[in-house]
Amino acid sequence: MDTQSAGGEMTGKGRVVMLVDNKVDGDSRVQKAAESAAAAGWDVTLLGLVRTGKGRSWKLGDAEVRLLPLKAPLAKRHAERHRSLLRRPLAYPPGPVAAYRRQWAKAWRADVATRRAALKVAPKAVGTPLFRRVEGVRLRVAGPVSNIVQRWVGLRSRHSTAAQQAGRRLRGPLDRLFTAAWTAVKGKRAWRRLEPALWDYELTYGPEIDALKPDLIHANDFRMLGVGARATVRARAAGRSVKLVWDAHEFLPGVRPWEDNAHWIPGNTAHESEYAPYADAVVTVSEGLSDLLIERHGLTERPTVVLNAPDRPADAEAHAITRVTADGEPEPTPDLRELCGIGPDVPLIVYSGSPGPQRGLGDLVETLPKLDGVHIAFVVPNPTSAYMETLLARAAELGAGDRLHTVPYVPHWQVVRFLSAADAGCIPIHHWPNHEIALITKFFEYSHARLPLVVSDVRTMSEVTRSTGQGEVFTAEDTDDLARAIKQVLADPEPYRAVYDKPGLLDAWTWEAQAEVLDELYSKLVTERKKSEPRP
C-alpha cells in the first residue's frame, strides 16, 4: 500500500515516525524496530534526543535517525526558581544572590584587616592624624560587625543550599502535600503541575512530527506517549488520519524512579493515564505486562507482545558485513576476553546491561571472594561511571580487584557473538515489580550466545529458566546462594548449553519473528486508516 510523502513522492507502505526519549545508541529494541520496519518497506524516521550540544542525523539501514537538541527549562524545580519561605525562610532567593553576598562579606573583612594593618605600618599613607583617629574608631566597630555579617551571610547561604537540595529531592512533607493536593484537584491532568518538564519533550518533538506528516506514530515508553498522542490529535484535527502505536516498555507504577521524589511517579503515571486512551494499538514486552496494562488502563484489546529479542546469529553476521571500517573492511566484533585481559581457559561470568544497585551488580562483586579464580565482566554503557568506580573499589577492598572488569557496549548486531566468549551469563536483579513480569533483553542475548544462565528468583525468568533447564536459579540478594549457582553451572556447563539445541526454542526468541509481528500490526492499522478516510 503506497502513500505520498510531504513532497508528493510515493513512499512504500506508509510513513512511520518513531519516537524515543534517548539518544538511540544503546537502545537495541528501538534500533531494531526502526531498521526492520524500513527493510519491510515502511518509510521510517526515528526521532531521538541529545541533552547537550547540537542534534545530528544518520541512516540506520534504510531508516533515518534524527537526534533533536532538548531544551529543558521546565525541568527546573520550583525551589530552583523561587524562594521557599515555608521550607527555609532564611534562605536567599535562587540565583546569584547568595554567592554575591558571601563574596561581598569576605571582601569587607579583607578590607577591614588591610586598613588595620595600614594604620600600624604606614600611618602617614592613611591620612592626617585626625583622620587616623576617626579611622581607628571606625575599624574597632567594623571588625566585630563585619564578623557578625559574615556569619549571618554564611548561615543564610547554608539555608539556601539546603533549600535547593530539598527542593530538587522533593521528598519532604510539603512535597507530598503538594502532590496530593494537585492529584485531588486535577486527577490525570495533575502532571502539568507535578512534571511540567514533559512539556519540554512536546515542544522539542512536536514541530518535527507535524512536518513529517506520518501515517503512523510509534511512541516508545511513557514520555513519548503524550508527545505522540498530541501529534495524532493535531493531525486528525487538520483532516489527516494518523494511527498511534504506544510501545510500553515497562509498568510505570512499578518503576524505581531515577528521581526518587514525591512528584515523579504520580506525575508520570497521571500523564500516561491521560494519553493511553488515544493509542490505536498497544505494544509491550511480555504477557505479564499486558495483563497489568489492561487492568490499569481498561484496554479493550490485548496488547501485542514484541519481545526484546536479538537478531538471529545469521542476521547479525549479515549486519556485520554491511558495516565496514574506514578501510572498507568488515567491522570486527571485539573480543570480550581480550578486553578483560584473560585467556580462553579462565572462568568468566558476564553481566550485560544497564547498571544500578537494584540490578544486583553489587551482589556479584560480593561473591568474588567465594569464587576462587573466577572473573566477572560488566558490559555497561559507561565503564568509567561513578557507580562502576565504586564497584571496582569494592572489589579491590575484597582482594579481587584484578578479577572484576568493566567494558563498553558493542553495537546490537555484535552483542551475541561478543557475549559468547563468556562461560555463563548472570541476571542478579532484585525483586521489583517490573523485574518480575518479563524476559528481559539480556535473557535472550545470553540464550542466543548459548550461555548457561544464573538468574535470581524473579518470577518470569526463574520460571522459564527452570522449565527449559538452561541455567540455575538463586535467591535474589543472597550472595551465598548466588555463588552456589555460579559454581554449579561452571562445574558442568554442557547440559545447560545442550538445551539450546531443542528445535524451535531459539527461533521464537529472535528479532526476525518480532519484526513480522510489528509489520503485521502496522499494516493492519494503516489499512484501517485508509478505509476510514473519506472518498474523494
Structure notes:
- With 536 residues, this protein is of the alpha/beta class.
- The chain is built from 22 helices and 14 strands.
Summarize it.
This protein is α/β, with parallel strands linked by helices. It has helices at residues 28-39, 78-81, 97-121, 123-126, 129-169, 173-186, 191-194, 198-212, 221-237, 264-275, 287-297, 313-322, 336-340, 361-367, 386-397, 415-419, 433-436, 441-448, 459-468, 479-491, 494-498, 511-532; strands at 15-19, 43-50, 56-60, 63-69, 216-220, 243-248, 281-284, 304-305, 348-352, 375-380, 404-408, 424-427, 453-456, 471-474. Residues 1-10 and 318-322 have low confidence and may be disordered.
Strand order of the largest sheet: 3-4-2-1-5-6-7-8
Based on the structure, what is the oligomeric state of the protein chains?
A: single chain
Alpha plus pi helix count: 22
Q: Choose one word for the global shape.
A: globular
Structural class: alpha/beta
Report the sheet with the most strands, covering strand number, pairing sense and barrel closure. 8 strands, mixed
N→C terminal distance: 18 Å
